[in-house]
Every structure is written in C-alpha cells, then in structure tokens.
Amino acid sequence: MDIRRPSCALALILVFCLTEHAQCMNTKINFREKEKQILDQILGPGRYDARIRPSGINGTGDAPTIVRVNMFLRSISKIDDYKMEYSVQLTFREQWLDERLKFNNLGGRLKYLTLTEANRVWMPDLFFSNEKEGHFHNIIMPNVYIRIFPNGNVLYSIRISLTLSCPMNLKLYPLDKQTCSLRMASYGWTTDDLVFLWKEGDPVQVVKNLHLPRFTLEKFLTDYCNSKTNTGEYSCLKVDLLFKREFSYYLIQIYIPCCMLVIVSWVSFWLDQGAVPARVSLGVTTLLTMATQSSGINASLPPVSYTKAIDVWTGVCLTFVFGALLEFALVNYASRSDMHRENMKKARREMEAAASMDAASDLLDTDSNATFAMKPLMHDGVVDSKMRQCEIHISKKRKNCCRLWMSKFPTRSKRIDVISRITFPLVFALFNLAYWSTYLFRDEDEEQ
Fold first, then answer.
1. What was the pLDDT predicted at 262?
2. What are residue 251's DSSP bridge partners?
3. I need a surface site. Which of 60, 130, 180, 246 has the fewest CB within 10 A?
4. At 287, which helix (H) or strand (E)?
5. Contact, 321 vs 294, CB < 8 A?
6. Under 8 Å between Cβ of 96 and 154
7. Domain Neurotransmitter-gated ion-channel ligand-binding: where (predicted)?
C-alpha cells in the first residue's frame, strides 16, 4: 500500500501538468492588448515628453537629431506661367531615432506600433519655404500615420497637396526649359539641434506615367540648401524638377497661323494695282488679325522687362504684314506718278507735233533759196539718226540680265510689285533660318 500511493500521486501530477500545458497551447495572445500596454508604457504620463527632442548620435544630447527625408510624387496638376507657380501632390516621409520609444517586440511577433496622432511624439519642425498654399487630405480619414519600431525608429508619413512658387525665365518661351524647386527647412531648430538628410537610395520617387498637359518632366535632382540668418544656420533640403515645355501645342496654335497670315498678306502683290479696295482690305485685315494674335499670346504671360522668343516671332511677322500694307501705298504712289509722267509726255509730244507743223508751213511760204538750204539739214538728220541707232545698239549690249528682265515691266509700280514678290518671301525664309537655328540649337548652359 505504501508503494502504490506515491505512484498514484505522480500520475495525478503528470495528468494535471499535461492538461495545463494543453490549455496554455490553446490560449492565443491578444497582440492588440499588448500594443495598448506597450503604448501606455512608453507614452504614459510622466514617461515621455514630446516637447524634448531625441538625443543625437550614440544617445548623446550634444549631437543633433538626424532626420532622414524621402517623398513620393503622386501628381503635378498644373504649371502656371502667369503666376509662376505649380501644384503638386505628394506623400511626404520623415524617419528618425528616438531611443525613449524602444519596446519589446515579443520575440519578433510585433513589428511596429501605429499611431494616427502626431502630437503624441516629438516631431521635426519642418516647413516648405517656397509654399504658397497647402492642405492635408482628410477623406475618408486623415491620410497620416506614425510607425514606432522596436529599436526606437519613428516613421512619419503624410499625404499633402502644395502650391509652390516657381520663378521662371521666359526669354526662350515657348522653346524653354524651367526648373522648379521644392524646398524644405527647419523653422526653429538650428543645425546644432536638428539636421535633415536625404534618405539613402532613391529618396525621391515619381509615379509612373506622370502626365502634364504642356510639359514633360525630364529629370529631378536632390540637393542641400542650408541657410544662415541672424539667429543661426538652419538645415534645408531641396528637389529641383526640370520641366521641358511641349512645343507641338505652340507650333499648331501660334507659329503656323502666324506664317499663314504673313503668306496671305503677300497675295496683294499679285493683285492688280488698280484693285485698291481689295488690296487695302486684305492688308488691313491681316494686320488686325496679326495684332489680335500677338495680344492674345501676351495675355497669358506675365509682363516682363525682357524680350521673349515669341515676342521676336510675332514682332517680325507683324512687321512683314505691315510692310505688305506699306508696299501697296508705295505702289499706289508710283502708279499715280507714272500716270502723271505719261500725261506730261503726251502733252509734250502734242506740243512738239504742233511746233513741227508750224515750222513746215513757214518753210513752204519762203522763197526757193530755202529749198537748197534744206539739203545739208537732211544730211545732218540722217547722220544723227545713224549715230543714235549705234548708241542704242551699244547700250543694249551693256545691259545685264536683271535690267533686261525688268525692262519687260514698263511702269515703276509694276516693278515694285515684282520685286516684292521675290524679296518678301526670301527675307522671311532667311529670318526663319536664323530664328530656328538660334533657339533650337542652343547650348544647355545658355538655357540655364
């Protein structure tokens, strides 16, 4: 009996232990409850002060807090040339180490803690220095979160929309490239307390298939832009976005219509010089249309003190159209001058004919001695006519081809029209050659 009692007791103890172990295995750990306990432990009253910045490198209070920044550009909605600004939507992220927020990860089962209230922990006082307007996104919930990792790393992420200033140089408009910056800096903490650094490895990401109506994002560059003021030196980061303007829109809307207006103004050179209403109405219409086109272009651009590439184009086209109108004024004046000259010649010929008739009648009334005196006069007249024919023959040989071709047009007004038909297109073609070679084949250094 004494031997059996210990064996029964051992059996009962073994069964009890196996039962308790099975119950422990079936019990699940409530990680949400554990998260609450950890948050209360590290952020409870008297345990964490969000007003004090984290310690620097190696936990020393003298070293500045390092904050690494990266962002994801979701969209660029517009680039306004008149206001010199652009709008962008991005996901902005900051990451830093706060050793006061370390916690037990339960054997790797708890990867991080998530917060939605930014005021619970210390936050860098970053601001966008070239911001004009900005807002957060709160639909359906505020688009912001904070992740606290077991080693004390803090990740802050927020989705924001910004309207930023972008000073532009429009000397080459619309064949230009513009660089728009996004600047971030510390507002109150100097570099002795807070330093911003770009995250290593692709700190700026851009959404695929980014579409802009009139621009193309060629590339972007990250850099530092620390600023010194009377109160100290402040850490600053910047992203330079290089945009190239799409030229096809301006080619269709501006350049081709201007060329067509200039060519239409040349039609007056082929109209008869007597068609005054047609030539005047054509010249005035093209001139007013060109002036309206030029004013419409400048209405969408800010008033600047320098000459833009589009100003050179519209100014020269307007000059050509105005020159065509002045050419008709010159033709009209030459036509009236030619008519006046013809009338003068006709009157002179009539006067000479009348004088010759009077001289002939006087000779018939004289005595017979006058008959013998006419022979040497007739001889002299024959000699003079032969000499004149020789001079005309020699002068014809000396004429070049241009004078020979111009002699086909007897009036000066017709000659002006013919010269204009060749001169205006030739000069406009030379201008196009100089214009496009200057603005299309320029160096990148000149653009900057």
1. 95
2. none
3. 60
4. helix 276-299
5. no
6. yes
7. 35-245
- CA-derived radius of gyration, the chain: 47
Q: How many CA atoms lie within 13 A of 278 on its CB side?
A: 11
What band does 60 get if pLDDT is binned at 50, 70 and 90? low
The 10 Å Cβ neighbour count of residue 121 is 20
Token output for 212: 């802009």
Residues 6+ apart with CB under 8 A from 375: none
Instruction: Give the bridge partners for 146, in sequence order.
Output: 115, 156
Report the alpha-carbon distance of residue 96 to residue 101 in Å, rounded.
Answer: 11
Mean pLDDT of the 27-47 span: 77
Residue 313 is predicted with a pLDDT of 95
Amino acid 134 reads G
**Per-residue pLDDT tens for 169-220?**
999 999 999 999 999 999 999 999 999 999 998 899 999 888 888 899 999 9
Statement: residue 245 has pLDDT above 60: yes
pLDDT of residue 9: 54
Contacts of 397 (CB under 8 A, 6+ apart): none
Would you call 300 helix, strand, or coil by DSSP?
coil
Tokens of 425: 């297109």
Give the tens place of pLDDT for each residue, 409-430. 667 778 888 888 899 999 999 9
Distance CA 341, CA 337 (A): 6
Amino acid at 192: D
Sequence-distant (≥ 6) Cβ neighbours of residue 314 within 8 angstroms = 254, 258, 290, 293, 294, 297
Close Cβ partners of 91 (under 8 Å, ≥ 6 residues apart): 71, 72, 74, 157, 158, 159
